[in-house]
Write a structure and sequence with these properties.
The complex is a heterodimer of chains A (about 170) and B (about 775). Helix content of chain A is about 35%, strand content about 15%. Chain A has helices at about 30-35, 95-100, 110-125, 130-135, 150-165; strands at about 10-15, 20-25, 55-60, 60-65, 80. In chain A, about 55% of the residues are buried. By secondary structure, chain B is α+β, with helices and mostly antiparallel strands. The chains are: A alpha+beta (about 170), B alpha+beta (about 775).
């Protein structure tokens, strides 16, 4: 292949605690790399222009829109996707548990992005008010729930996480 | 009751369309028109040589027939749509060619290599230029009018107006909006060349209609067309259509004998999936001095875009609005002219609350205007006109049969919930302090759970209207079912599993529902129009009754009694009057497996009634910043009545989500085309949907008035929130602005538009026509 744009670049990274590697064209989006090359289809694409937040993953602990990054930019970094959130098979993370309990999801397509946004947010602000949660989640779009139970689930998750690790 | 589907979806193990793959998978991309209206001079695919497949309109037309939408509605002029444009494009985003390549990125690359030469034509950008008819979009629709229909008696309405104490008039426009599920449209088609079988997975609400359209368009016998529905990432009516893209992708798979996947991107979705609303309504009421409405006269003008949609045609929005403007009120005389005009814009289709959203917006604006004129409280004017509990069954002036309802009760409860008197006092206090509070009340009723009679009545002959369930007693005594109603994410899998578990009185984990797969699932219509719970529960009741009837003789034999003395219930069967004498479903299944001819697998269908009517009252409280035009929702309350609730948590989720979409249409969402038919809102930076920061907490209470017509008395709930919220928020803003002399006449009420209304009102009062007032 003569076209340098189509040349493959080697990418080494840590995904959900495991060392992974792959190859991708320079133009390949991180979201597509996660889904196609790493086989982790829990990360969803809702707009591919950085607005809806469905493709949010954590890179080195920070929420990023994987549709706005190229895969090569994740080289050497650490990713957490929705598949890595629960502590083990048949177990749920407290945020997932809270979403289940509070009916915080309907179609589930935007949910992985919310879960990871909320994880990073609650680490920063473990005891938020409802208004703070509403502002913190305003970068993620959900079309099913009217956000009512997402907000409720976030507050519930904060409660579960606080009781799991008392300050 | 927690949802059964959630653990999978929460851990990233959902299986949506784009998560599916097949060996040898290819990807499709569409070449779309950049012009609103143009003649196609040439499609040059030479540069795309070496790509797996390039198909333009004429090439596809040789393989696939257009949709055979059967629509027999008075005043409708049938127009056709090619799956890929032939000779002419009629909206920005219309698919012109299909490109298939190895990988989604390569397909996009290849699409750019297709050179289409256009000769631009003048565009019909709005209703005014459509009706001026200087440009004709379809020969079959002279003057660009694709539907014109009159309802009711003009003469008797005019007589009422002549005799009435007073009349009031309002005009309101609802913007063009889009359903915008977070999962865009998506389809994967494969063709088994050995058996000649087409296998299609689609993110669809209407798998049966899709299967029939695939068979008909591609001339494949239906027994060799199989459609499956994976997890669906939201539908909201938008996916209740069969799309030309689905036919084109399937046609490519047939030609190539290989699997082909297409995932719509968001820009395509905004430009070329179906849009909705875009309706201008003028309504007048003749009334008594006490505020009792004697007659309503209405004019509905809907811009339906460039084509109809399959299987509904272009009539959903205008006819839904025209027939529901009388709403929950006692209106004995009604006349309406409804028109649908063609414009160079994306076709309009179903979207949550189709038709009824605009109808409720109109009737609630009208009631508010009547209240203002008579200096009556808006709640009081509603109370004087709402149909009372003893009015049912009520035959509306447009021929709808309202089966039951609790219109006055939901109004009273909602007012109590928000402490209405206190709110009005608070509003007055704010006003003296220079703050603008607005309170909006919306009462509505909507048709849900429609059956075949409704679709026949509308002339929609391509929509059967019934639903079916396949049900099997497994050898271990568990129950498995599959229904013609796919789940779209609203939780229908849980709702219907609960309905089935209730039929046999077994725990929820004793039943399982298999997603729609037409090789197993019997025929039906699909999940739309707030029909899922009503039609699904009905189909499961019918199938359960039949299975029970076949189990009763076996149970009787085991229990050594007459079959007539056996009840199949309580997780098995028992002797009537001696419930301790019982057998379990597992026992029955084991016994039956040794008997030839026992019917343990049944298919039954259910045809819902004409419709069953849900109702609700919404109350919205807004604060308007008159300097910036910003509208903030400070309070929101709903009291709804969808009859008995199978899963209260899921019902609440439906009301929440639908309400947010109504808030979107009232305050934020608008697809804007310029005078040349170019779409100006082609990204989510321009088309704004509500976020968690804009949607307030929603107080929600319920009234349960069972339908006398449906199984379980259930009524539909999926769409109502959107109907109530659009009207309530618009009323609230209008209520806040009224003392300033500003009149709301179109949505969405963006800061810019609110400022313009205030400026115009100030200008009028100052007599300078609004100039010079910032």
């Amino acid at each position: 292949m003569d076209d340098p744009a189509l040349a493959k670049h080697k990418i080494q990274l840590t995904v959900n605690g495991q060392a992974r590697e792959g190859e991708a064209e320079a133009r390949k989006l991180l979201a597509d790399f996660i889904r196609e090359d790493l086989g982790l289809t829990g990360t969803h694409l809702g707009c591919e222009h950085g607005v809806c937040g469905a493709c949010t993953v954590l890179m080195d602990g920070e929420p990023v829109r994987s549709c706005l990054l190229f895969a090569v930019q994740a080289d050497g970094h650490e990713l957490l996707t929705v598949e890595g959130l629960a502590p083990g098979p048949d177990q749920l993370h407290p945020i997932q548990e809270a979403f289940w309990e509070c009916h915080g999801l309907q179609c589930g397509f935007c949910t992985p992005g919310f879960l990871l946004t909320i994880k990073a947010y609650l680490e920063e602000n473990p005891d938020p008010t409802e208004r703070q949660v509403r502002e913190a989640l305003a970068g993620n779009l959900c079309r099913c729930t009217g956000y009512q139970n997402i907000v409720k689930a976030t507050l519930r998750a904060a409660e579960l996480l606080r009781s799991a690790s008392p300050a | 009751m927690r949802r059964v589907e959630d653990p999978r979806l929460l851990t990233g193990h959902g299986l949506y369309l784009d998560d599916l793959s097949r060996p040898g998978l290819l990807h499709a991309a569409f070449v779309r028109s950049p012009h609103a209206h143009a003649r196609i001079v040439r499609v040059d695919t030479l540069a795309a040589r070496g790509i797996d497949l390039v198909l333009d309109g004429p090439a596809l037309a040789r393989q696939a027939r257009p949709f055979g939408t059967r629509l027999d509605a008075p005043g409708y002029r049938p127009i056709d749509r090619p799956h890929l444009a032939v000779g002419r494009v009629r909206f920005v985003g219309e698919p012109v060619a299909l490109v298939v390549a190895d990988g989604a990125y390569r397909a996009r690359d290849a699409a750019e290599l297709v050179a289409v030469q256009y000769e631009p034509l003048p565009a019909v950008a709005d209703a005014r230029s459509a009706l001026a008819a200087a440009v004709q979009l379809h020969e079959a629709a002279p003057g660009n009018v694709v539907l014109e229909r009159e309802l009711g008696s003009k003469g008797s309405v005019e007589a009422a107006f002549a005799e009435a104490d007073l009349s009031v008039e309002i005009e309101i426009r609802h913007p063009r909006v889009v359903g915008l599920p977070i999962e865009t449209r998506a389809v994967l088609a494969d063709f088994d060349t050995v058996t000649g079988t087409l296998i299609v997975w689609s993110s669809t609400q209407a798998p049966i209609a899709l299967r029939e359209a695939l068979g008909e368009c591609l001339d494949i016998p239906l027994e060799r067309v199989r459609v499956m529905v994976p997890d669906v990432g939201g539908g909201f009516g938008l996916k209740a259509q069969v799309f030309p893209e689905e036919i084109a992708v399937a046609a490519a798979a047939v030609r190539l004998g290989r699997p082909v996947k297409w995932i719509e991107d968001r820009l395509e979705h905004l430009a070329a999936a179906t849009h909705a609303r875009d309706t201008l309504v003028r309504v007048e009421a003749a009334a008594t001095r006490r505020g009792e409405i004697l007659a309503i006269r209405a004019d509905v003008l809907c811009e339906v875009g460039a084509y109809g949609v399959h299987p509904y045609g272009p009539i959903l929005e205008p006819m839904g609005t025209a027939t529901m403007i009388p709403g929950p009120y006692m209106v004995s005389r009604y006349y309406c002219r409804a028109r649908a005009v063609l414009t160079n814009a994306a076709p309009e289709g179903a979207y949550r609350g189709v038709g009824v959203v605009v109808a409720a917006l109109a009737h609630e604006q009208l009631l508010d205007e009547l209240a203002r004129r008579l200096r009556l409280d808006p709640a009081e004017v509603r109370r004087r006109n709402l149909l009372r509990r003893n009015a049912f069954p009520y035959s509306s002036p447009t021929g709808h049969l309202y089966d039951s309802g609790s219109y006055d009760e939901t109004l009273d409860r909602a007012l109590k919930l928000v402490d209405y008197e206190h709110l009005r006092a608070e509003q007055a206090r704010c006003r003296t302090a220079g703050r603008t509070l607005g309170i909006g009340i919306a009462c509505y009723t909507e048709y849900t759970g429609m059956g075949s009679l409704t679709f026949r009545g509308r002339g929609m002959l391509s929509v059967p209207g019934h639903e079916s369930a396949w049900l099997r007693l497994e050898p271990d005594g568990r129950l498995t079912a599959s229904l013609s109603l796919p789940s779209l994410g609203q939780g229908l899998s849980t709702t219907l599993a609960q309905a089935l578990a209730d039929e046999f009185e077994v725990p929820l984990d004793w039943v399982s529902l298999i997603g729609t797969d037409t090789s197993l699932t019997p025929v039906g219509s699909g999940t739309f129009g707030s029909r899922g719970a009503v039609a699904g529960a009905g189909a499961l009741r019918a199938a359960s009754d039949r299975l029970k009837a076949s189990l009763a003789p076996l149970a009787a034999e085991l229990l050594e009694v007459d079959p007539a003395d056996v009840d199949v219930t309580g997780g098995g069967a028992r002797v009537r009057g001696a419930p301790e004498r019982r057998v379990t479903l597992a026992h029955l299944a084991a016994f039956a497996s040794q008997r030839r001819g026992s019917e343990l697998e049944v298919v039954e269908s259910y045809d819902p009634p004409l419709a069953t009517f849900s109702n609700a009252t919404h109350v919205a409280v807004v604060e308007v910043d008159v300097e910036t035009g910003m509208v903030e929702l400070v309070r929101y309350a709903v009291v709804e009545d969808c009859g008995p609730r199978i899963n209260p948590m899921i019902v609440e989720g439906q009301v929440h989500g639908a309400t947010a979409q109504g808030i979107g249409g009232a305050l934020f969402e608008e697809l804007v085309y310029d005078g040349n038919g170019q779409l100006l809102t082609a990204s989510l930076m321009d088309y704004l949907v509500p976020t968690s920061a804009e949607v307030p907490g929603i107080q929600l209470e319920h009234v349960e008035t069972p339908s006398p017509l449906t199984v379980g008395g259930y009524k539909g709930v999926g769409e109502g929130g959107t109907v109530g919220a659009t009207a309530a928020v618009a009323s609230a803003v209008a209520d806040g602005l009224a003392p300033l002399g500003a009149h709301v006449n179109r949505l969405p009420l963006t800061p810019e538009r609110v400022r313009a209304l205030i400026r115009a009102a100030r200008g009028q009062r100052m007599g300078d026509g609004g100039r010079g007032w910032g």
